[in-house]
Amino acid sequence: MVRGRQVVKQARRPEVRLPELVAFEDGGLVPDGDYDGLEFRNVDFAGQDGGGARFMDCALTGCALDETRLHRARMLDSVLTGIRGVGTDLAEATLRDVDLVDARLGGVRLHGAVLERVLVRGGKIDYLNLRGARLTDVVFEGCVLVEPDFGGARLERVEFTDCVLKGADLTGAALRDVDLRRAAELDLARGVDRLSGAVVSHAQLLDLAPVLAAELGLRVAEAD
Asked: CA 98 to CA 70: how far, in whole Å?
């Protein structure tokens, strides 16, 4: 156990302060749209195309994002609360200074995305695709992530607090100052060899022992 110095650098959380917002009344999203200081409340964006759009100082509350195309969209200084959807396409998107609260998402595509100062609090996300993404100063707090895919991603100053990870894939990922110690459940399906750069608790290390042994080809047996 390391004492007397910081074990891992803490993530810098977003500090989003929204201005007075104007209700969104334009109907639907458009590619490369520019949305500034707007409130989207209980809007159904299912199947719509907002690829390349920019959301600045916005609040999305209770919106449906089933199969919504937001490829290369930019979400800046915004709060997303209670959004839901299956198959949302956020590939190569940029999320900077964003609060994502109580989301219910499945199969969301964030591969190649850039996440910087993002807080994911509460909710459940199934089959989150973050392959090749860059995560810096990201906190997953009190949420459930089922089979998240971090393959080839770069994670720096990322924290998992009271968060459940089930079947996580770290294949080819690069981790630096990743804090897993306060994860409520840590289950790695693949990529245990990529944990260099992460910090786990003693209890988690014992739980990971069978996976680590399998990765090393180490056989464990009692002496005769």
From this structure: 16
